[in-house]
Structure formats: structure tokens, C-alpha cells
Amino acid sequence: MGRASLRQRSTRLVVVVVFAGFLGIGLIADYLWASSPHFAVNSYVSNWAANDKSRANLIVPSRSANVSNPQGKAEAGVGVPERVLSATFADLPAPELKWEKMAAAPVPRLDGAAIQIKNLLYVFAGYGTIDSVHSHVDIYNFTDNNWGGRFDMPKEMAHSHLGMVTDGRYIYVVTGQYGPQCRGPTAHTFVLDTETKQWRDMPPLPVPRYAPATTLWRGRLHVMGGSKENRHTPALDHWSLAVKDGKPLEKEWKTEIPIPRGGPHRACIVVDDRLYVIGGQEGDFMAKPGSPIFKCSRRNEVVYGEVYMLDDEMKWKVLPSMPKPDSHIEFAWAIVKNSIVIAGGTTEKHPVTKKMVLVGEIFQFNLNTMKWSLVGKLPFRVKTTLVGFWKGWLYFTSGQRDKGPDDPSPKKVIGEMWRTKLKLNP
């Protein structure tokens, strides 16, 4: 009996030693792989560190936020200590920028809209929380670096997921979601005279949409894509309406060439008589069936970085894609010299947790070379930024920021305003 017990203990000891040996070999191999050239972010991260999603680490610079400034005066600050992130959270390499915190917006906003006219940034609507929405406009003056001039929106106007564009005086507002949570869209359209603060109705869109790509091009108001009435299904429709000086010249919208890929939350920009549509996603949250408050429920989303262009030939052309997929950027852009600059957004979901991953980079699309580059980092990752550019300064306000340096999933809806001096290579 004693010998049998001894043999059993010896067998267990051998098993433990062998297992420990294999474990040690595995850890050494894992370390060598993580240190090898195969573990690089320059190829980005569509592969999400494909060989080992859970254990690979990457050392990247950290960023520290500035202290709040109740007077709204500029204050500088940036930190660069190292931090260790899972490869699935890796930001793309980009220069660190010196950010200054300005006067915060009167209210926090998510999925709001913004239009810049000269030195004024008009900031519209948006969620305050998932259960509350704003129905007014706030104005930021880049000359005084202060907020003021609040006024109300029409009661029938959508509160989020708006299509919006300006001709330099009149702001055209198209469709969008009416109410909080995941309520339905409205087909109503409006025009605002920014000099008189007067609103006028326009012909309604043929069918309502969420966050369609919207712009003015060759005397016509163009509305493309977005999500259909269920908030999830991508739309390919493209309509236009002749407008001039804040007035419609037609009673009905005209059907145009469909957009190659549908979906909401894209940048839509006209430069040098060319129409660009950038980034976006297919799919979105939907109202939970039977919910009396239209409670949002998750659905599968596909984020992409594709770029399309219309020119004289009136055929969609495919241009180089963004450095990584990016959505929630419909008002996150500015024209700087002959480049399109885009700040923040959302990218592909975390492959393990399936959580939304926010973007902390600033992208430049050079219209001379038709090439993308990374020109800097935001003070934190954030989606649905509202961006302006004035006398060399890039500004952004509002949106939903990340949970912290080591967790890029969304957390707090903000109203903060930040700026940085931005210099671009020609």
C-alpha cells in the first residue's frame, strides 16, 4: 500500500514538472513573438494582432488631460509617459500635439451637428443623455473664444443624426432622428438664415433617413445614404434639390445616381467642384421591439474607411481609403489649405469584448496627392466631434470620449472645447 501511494505521488510530480516546462516554453515563445517585427501597428490593425488577440502588448505614448479652466482661457499641457495597451487597443503612430482647453459648451452633446461660418461655429441639437435631447443652437466665437447667442430650433426638427450644410449664410437641415433613445426619423427639412435667425420649411425628403451624407454641389442640395427607417438598414438613395439663397427652386427632390455603399455617420465635403464621401458604417443600434421608450438595442455594425468621389463624369470613383476604418465623423472635419482634416470617430469593434472602439487620431487627406497621413493625436479618443478651423487653430467640441488611456470604449458625453495649432505639410 505504501509503495503504491509513493508511485502515485511520483507520477503526479512528473506531470506537474512537465506541465510547468511546457508553460515556460510557451511564455518564452510568446515573448519572442511579441518582440518580433511581425508585431507592428503600421499595417494597422484590421488584423487586430491576429496571432494572439488576448496577450499581445504594445508600448505607446500616454496623454494626460489638462485641468479644467472655469474662465475658458487657454492653458497648455501634454504628457508623454509610456503606457502598455493590448494590441487590439493600439492607436496608430502619430505626432503628439499641444492642446489647450477652452471654455466648455453650455451643454454636453452626442450626435449633434455643427456648421462653421467665418469665425462662428453653430452647434445644433444632440443627445444630452440617452434619455434626453437638445432642441437649440449654441454659438462659439473663435475670435473671442467664448460661447453665446443661444436660440431655439423648430419644434418639428430632428434632434440627432441630422444632415446639414451651409452656403456661407444659410444652413440647410435635412431629416434625422426625432427624440431620445432610438426613436424614429423625420423627413422634415429646414433652412436657417444665420443673419436673421429665422427658420423656414423646405420640401420634405422623399423618405426619412438617419445621418445621411449631405452637401451643396452645383446649386443643388444633395442627400445620400444614411440608414433607413428602422435605423439599421443601410440606404443607397441619392436625391438632390435645387436651392438658392435659402429658398428651394423645386417642389420635389430629384433622384440621382445611388451611392456605391450605404450607411450613416460619414463625412461629405465639396472641394474644387468635387464631391467627396468619406468613411461611415453599415448598421446601427435599433429600437428594442415592443419597448415603450424605443430603448436602443445593439446590432451588428461594419465600420469602413472607403472614400468615393463625384466629378464632371457623374460616376462614383474610388479613392484611397482612410488609414483605418472610421465612422461618426459627419461633422468632425475641416478644410485646411488643400487638405481634408478629420478628428476622432469610431473604428472596428474590439474582436474579443465586441465593445465600440473610439478613435484618437487626426487624419489628413491631401487633395493634391490624394494620399492619407496622420498629423496628430487628440487629447483623448472621442467620437462625433464637432470641428472648426480658424487662423491656424484646429478646434473640436462635444462628443463621447473614452474610458481612459487603457480602455478605448465609450463612456462620458462631453461639452469640452479644445484647440491646437495645426501645421500641415503641403
UniProtKB/TrEMBL annotation:
Keywords assigned by UniProt, alphabetized? Membrane, Transmembrane, Transmembrane helix
Signal sequence extent: none
The portions of this protein that span the membrane are 12-34
Gene3D superfamilies, per the entry: Kelch-type beta propeller
Cite the Pfam families for this sequence. Answer: Kelch_KLHDC2_KLHL20_DRC7
UniProt keyword annotation of Transcription regulation present: no
| The keyword Membrane is annotated on this UniProt entry | yes
Identify the InterPro entries for this entry.
Answer: Kelch-typ_b-propeller, Kelch_1, Kelch_repeat-containing
Q: PANTHER family from the xrefs?
A: OS04G0487100 PROTEIN (PTHR46773:SF5), PTHR46773
Its protein name is Kelch repeat-containing protein
Q: Which organism is it from?
A: Erythroxylum novogranatense
